[in-house]
Amino acid sequence: MNTSLTDTPALSRRGLLKFSLGASAFLATVGLGASLSGCSPSQPAFGLAALRDSDLAFLRAVIPVMLDGAVAAGQMPAAIDATLGSLDRSLAHLSPAMLKLLHQLFDVLTLSVTRGPLTGVWGAWENASADDIRQFLARWENSSLDLLQQGHCSLLQLVMMAWYTQSEAWAHCGYPGPPTV
User: Fold this and answer.
1) pTM, rounded to two decimals
2) What tens digit of pLDDT does each residue of 8-23 get?
3) Which phi and psi angles does 133 have, rounded to 5°?
4) At what angle do helices 112-119 and 96-110 cross, to 10 degrees?
5) Where are the alpha helices (H) located in the chain, listed in sequence order?
């Protein structure tokens, strides 16, 4: 017997629409609750233009895993700071609408209500092991949900672009730097 996706009741269009509506309502409720309760401050962290304190905790946990192999262990703290600075400068030039979308992504990743189910990291990001973070990244990269794949791609591109704008990163990939004029 050969069944198609449309023959399976759980994967019907109606089922997908119900699930999407429920997921949208859940995320909207969580986002509204976070903004009303002050869990998601819109103010940037001290000395920064776009990144918030909650974003920094998440990024400080994820960046070392993403840069693993490209940065020596002893240079990792400086690389994290340089990457965060570069990322903040780049985000400061985004349109308000794009920055809001990025903040929403970070909110979903940092709010305990959504962090656990979506990432598999049930505790604070500061307490997550490198293996937990690798599993989260692999989970999102290989997810059947396009939204999670897009989130993974966005995170990866943001961090990698922020790191590789730094001259310290160029030697690792064999880039001699921009030509002198």
Assistant:
1) 0.76
2) 555 567 766 666 666 6
3) -70, -40
4) 80
5) 13-37, 53-66, 76-91, 96-110, 112-119, 130-141, 146-164, 167-173
Task: Give the Cα separation of 157 and 63 in Å (integer).
Answer: 12
- The amino acid sitting at 70 is A
3-class SS of residue 117: helix
- Of 141, 139, 148, 159, whose CA–CA distance to 64 is shortest? 159
Question: Which residues, at least 6 apart from 174, have a Cβ–Cβ distance to it below 8 Å?
Answer: none
**Residue 89 confidence class, pLDDT cut points 50, 70, 90:** very high
CB atoms within 10 A of CB 137: 17
Both tokens assigned to 156: 């990866």
Q: Is 129:113 a contact under the CB 8 Å cutoff?
A: no
Tokens 């969580």 sit at which residue? 30
